[in-house]
Design goal:
Distance between the termini: 44 Å
Number of strands: 2
Radius of gyration: 16 Å
Helix content: 55-70%
Strand content: under 5%
């Protein structure tokens, strides 16, 4: 999927089992993720896969500086690039609309 030299991220992703699970809507309301949380998750996942920041930047088509800033929790990181990095690392993002937004009347 994203080859870099001798690194093939897809096989490494299969070896890494990492997930954050929310079990109820009540917990979701109380849970607020920050840019620091996203950066920390990206860094921990990258390290768990044994991938360098430089290799991640090259395989995702972003720059090394972007990876560094994302992992530090930069609040103004470009969302398109963040989504690309998360996808490259195999991190799943789930978006759920609030119940009132899904009702039709």
């Amino acid at each position: 999927m994203f080859p870099y030299g001798n690194i093939l991220l897809t096989s490494a992703i299969k070896q890494l089992e990492y997930s954050r699970t929310v079990t109820s809507l009540d917990e979701m309301k109380a849970m607020k993720y920050t840019t620091q949380d996203i950066g920390r998750l990206a860094r921990e996942t990258r390290k768990g896969l044994g991938v360098t920041q430089k290799a991640l930047a090259m395989t995702s088509g972003t720059g090394l500086r972007f990876i560094i800033e994302l992992e530090r929790g930069k609040e103004t990181a470009e969302i398109g690039k963040v989504l690309t990095i998360l996808q490259t690392l195999g991190i799943q993002l789930t978006l759920t609309a609030p119940p009132a937004a899904t009702k039709r009347g």
